[in-house]
Amino acid sequence: MSYSDLMAYQRETEALAQIAGRLGWDQETMMARGSADQRAEETSALEGVLHARRTDPRVGDWLAGATPSDEIEAAQLRHIRREFERATKIPARLAQELARLTSLSQGIWAEARARDEVAHFLPNLSQVIALKREEAAALSQGTNADAYDALLDDYEPGATAEWIAGVFGRMRPRLVALREQVLDAPVPEPLKGEFPVEAQMRVARDLATAFGYDWTRGRLDLAVHPFSSGSGNDVRITTRVQETDPFNCFYSTIHEVGHAAYEQNIDQSYLLTPLGRGASMGVHESQSRSYENQLGRSRAFTGWLFRRMRAEGLALNLPDEEAFYAAVNRVQPGFIRTEADEVHYNLHIMMRFDLERALIAGDLLASDLETAWNDRFLADFGTVVDRPANGMLQDVHWSVGLFGYFPTYALGNLYAGCLTQALRADLPDLDGALSQGDTSAATGWMKDRLQRHGALREPRATVEHACGFVPEEAPLLEYLETKFRDLYRL
């Protein structure tokens, strides 16, 4: 009975965790700003309940007595054991204080970003870093892992900072060389004009539908920083709108649909169990990045999007589909990670990876972060950061304690390169469908090969199972070089 008792208990824990996630969604999309202090207390209280459940001695007893009968049960036990071992290393006080502080810090970060005042955010950031260093020390105690690796394991199990640094070290020279070639070429004409919010949102909803989002189990809202929330039968997405830049809205929406489709398409028998979620954030990003970039920014699909925008009555200064494709994929240095083109994006991640490793190691203080950010940005991108909202205040991640999360974005790109190579080999006529706005063959391939399996396998094994080879950086780099050398006639 140990296994069945454990899974019944785990199902309730998973349900409570979904409620905690819904509180976060509400805070980002609906909650009044004056409710922040109370919400922090609510979040802390719920985290206390979750921590108590995850460290309940009965979980250890059930794990000791459970014998898996198949691959699925073995995977469920692997996840629960890992979560139990990690949770029991973290004091309840620390878990609750982290939940309370990061809930508060999220609002303070948003205010600081809107006011361009780093000083308004630094006290909270310093406290968050101190608590995350304490958490990392607790998690790494009795292991060979360093502090940063202990945090990274929350988002990409099995990965290490040393391995990621090696991958980034191999990627950087080719990315920099490609960037220099592209920036020396003539610059495509950008999209210009005023694009009403209502029209953008109509197109955004059509895009979500085109990429397979199930509206009966989700909704689309606006947020400062787009995100996806939930799993199973309640998966919500957000986007943002700028009236002069519809691509921000459209590609944020496609990106979040990639995340949401992964969660919605997991086998229903895994609902409210450890397998009923993505294998890792890197694997999750492989879905959102492949939807957004390899599919959504392809020449074929942008042709459909061009026609869809014209049908909506949105004035376009671009003469044809090819000019529109060039504008969608326009390469230019910019401050904002989420708006970065495919050539620059991973360089943004590499910078954040190095900075947050230094913060957790104690080699960089929060008070020195703005200077370190600005110096590194100038060295990497050749541009002086003009204001904090375009610099260290642009991302929400550190305010909510997501140290170790940033490198998973680049790993997601790496995995997406591998998956797309395999997908294209299996679907040689894909562009014909994409040119009509039909992504079903590609998204169906992703569902069958990867999404429906949830967290059954470890992250890199998940990608290997889907694409048929060990994931590595070469397919991504080859995709980027082929695409942008063609587009810029290099």
TrEMBL record:
Keywords: Carboxypeptidase, Hydrolase, Metal-binding, Metalloprotease, Protease, Zinc. GO terms for biological process: proteolysis. It catalyses: Release of a C-terminal amino acid with broad specificity, except for -Pro. CDD domains: M32_Taq. Broad specificity carboxypetidase that releases amino acids sequentially from the C-terminus, including neutral, aromatic, polar and basic residues. Belongs to the peptidase M32 family. This is Metal-dependent carboxypeptidase. It comes from Gemmobacter megaterium.
